[in-house]
Amino acid sequence: MRKICILGSGYAGIFCAANLLADYDNKRKYEISIFDQNSSHQLLQQIQLVCANIKKPNDISFSIYDLMKDDIKFYKELVIGVNFDKQNIFTANNKEYDFDYVIIALGSSNAFFGIKGAKEYSQSFRSLDDAIKLQKKIQKIKDSNIVICGGGATGISLAGAISETSKENINITIIEAQSDILPGWNPKLVKTIKKFLINHKINLITNNPIIEVYPSSVLLGDGTIIENSLSIWTAGVKGSDVQIIPSIKKTRSNRIIVNKLSQIEGYNNAFAAGDISAFPLDNGQISPQLAQFAVRQAINIAKNILRKEKGEKMVEFYYEQQGSILSLGNRCIGMINGIIISGSLCQYVEDFLIDNYIKTIKNRGRGISSLAYEQDKFSQISSSLNFMITTAAKILSSN
Ligand SMILES: Cc1cc2nc3c(=O)[nH]c(=O)nc-3n(C[C@H](O)[C@H](O)[C@H](O)COP(=O)(O)OP(=O)(O)OC[C@H]3O[C@@H](n4cnc5c(N)ncnc54)[C@H](O)[C@@H]3O)c2cc1C
User: Which CATH class is domain 112-235?
Assistant: First the structure.
């Protein structure tokens, strides 16, 4: 049996496994193993809702065993490294596992850019555990300031969630080094989100980098000092650390450089997917660190491995962003096909996407979440119709 090892059970890892299993026969042909330090698949893009007590940890965390049943082998292990020459991976328990194919999908971790005190004095916000810790801390804070370091999607959605739900008089300040929040997002959408932040009395400081973080304040580039009870770090991410032998090309932010087939240079059986990968986009930039990118790239990798096994030609991955939705606590604001959506409609879209995401994993890649990302028109139209029917039914039943 051919051995396929998937490192990481996040969006990229789990979707890759689900799509490898799309054909039931593959269970007999391939031994698919997933390695993760956690035994659950966590919806990272919803952790701010746990932090704000809108969702419980169990609502966004799904046992790998339940999702994958006995179709795969799961190893709860901390992966230390991969040896391409020996074709094996090694873990913190001093164990080694052989592979015929490896998919590195270990996600990303905080980047502190050498800013003094950032690691020591700010609260991390990159995992469900972080969100649970943060939720406890926020509950204890009253009449005080919270500083969110970083005005990207993570920081903004966290600010929105805290402001929507905090009963106490908490002031939230978001600090962004660049000239505007949500760098790279559509300006019309950014304007709408800013309106939401202003209405929720969230302070925005832009064009002002953080120079140093202290136990109860932060120092900004223009000399301003902001006193606070809690600073939360969402200002930067880098690819997760994993030792690779022999060494390979990475970006400055520790992301693994891959080609259009998501392969690591020099190895046609080694792939990187999701946040840890630096995939070349047609516009000359590298891939965004987004769940929707991770999922679609993973589908392409799974299908290519199956194509290669059948002696067929692999197909390059093409990515175009299909809408964006930002969760802001009990609300969402998003943009689909250039049109801003907010209120209940946006919430239905978000709920629909998440429900179908889990269903698609359980159905081994067959479902709306895969169809919507297919490049043929028939799949896209059928997923849109399904969405419209489900949403209409939901709206009618809630009236
Ligand atoms: C608060 C927040 C909000 C977000 N909002 C959005 C959004 O609205 N839309 C969007 O598209 N994206 C959003 N994102 C980004 C999105 O969550 C990531 O792009 C996505 O999780 C990347 O998927 P991945 O599979 O590459 O990594 P992950 O989902 O991070 O999975 C990596 C997995 O690897 C495991 N792992 C890491 N290192 C090791 C190791 N050494 N050994 C064993 N296991 C290991 C981890 O436990 C984890 O399960 C958000 C992220 C955050 C934090």
Answer: alpha beta
